[in-house]
Amino acid sequence: MIVFDLCCMLGDHRFEAWFASSEGFADQQARGLIGCPVCGDTDIKKAVMAPRVGAKSNQIATTEPGKPVDTVAPTDMSPDLIRRVVAEIAAKQAAMLPQSRWVGRDFADAARAMHEGRAPDDLIHGQASPDEAQALRDDGIAAMPLLVPIVPPDAVN
Predict the structure, then answer these.
(1) Closest to 128 (Cα-Cα) out of 147, 103, 92
(2) Cys-Cys link to 132, which of 9, 100, 104, 128 (CB 3.0-4.6 A)?
């Protein structure tokens, strides 16, 4: 995997994205599959970025005793830490959902109508098939799956 700092041409918004390889980035860029998370522009270029240079192989990495490490490697994550992180994600999502309108199976149509200006912008959530979700992405319409599954409001007792 490789991470690139990217920039849209429309609003000069900077963001980063992960790709399998440089060729993977070039392919997605050529097909217009990379969109700015701020404005949706698909005219994307690589931004200037500082290279990540690893330590020399003959050097031993050390940390000061008692000084906390800034990052945790995924392999060092305990099951308890993973449970806490998932619980925090679920809590943030639960706090966000009441501010969003449930549109059910009409999600793709509602998102497209807002994108095209046929409906006012609104926070929505609902259901879309994988094909509908891919069509939204192909058309540069920002949508993402909820990270924690929910029970649709019409299915709650």
Answers:
(1) 103
(2) 128
